[in-house]
Amino acid sequence: MSEIQELEKVVLALPIQQRVGLTESLLDSLPPAGEEWSEAEELAEVERRELEIESGQVKAIPEGEFWRRVETGRRR
Q1: What's the pLDDT tens digit per position in 28-63?
Q2: I want to staple 65 with a disulfide (CB 3.0 to 4.6 A). Which of 19, 33, 57, 61 is the partner?
């Protein structure tokens, strides 16, 4: 088991209030998020992703499958 996995096991065993406090501390320790996107940049990204799907470069998945994968990733 890796050091991170061991640490995660210990942290997940803590009472919820302690986990919340630890989470807040960790989030506060991160650098600020990158610059916000302008509306034009957001639209350009949406169009780029739509083209990827339409061209077959990437395959869209149903929303339910997306959330299943998110939950599976969280459990790792």
Answers
A1: 888 777 778 889 999 999 999 999 999 999 999 999
A2: 61
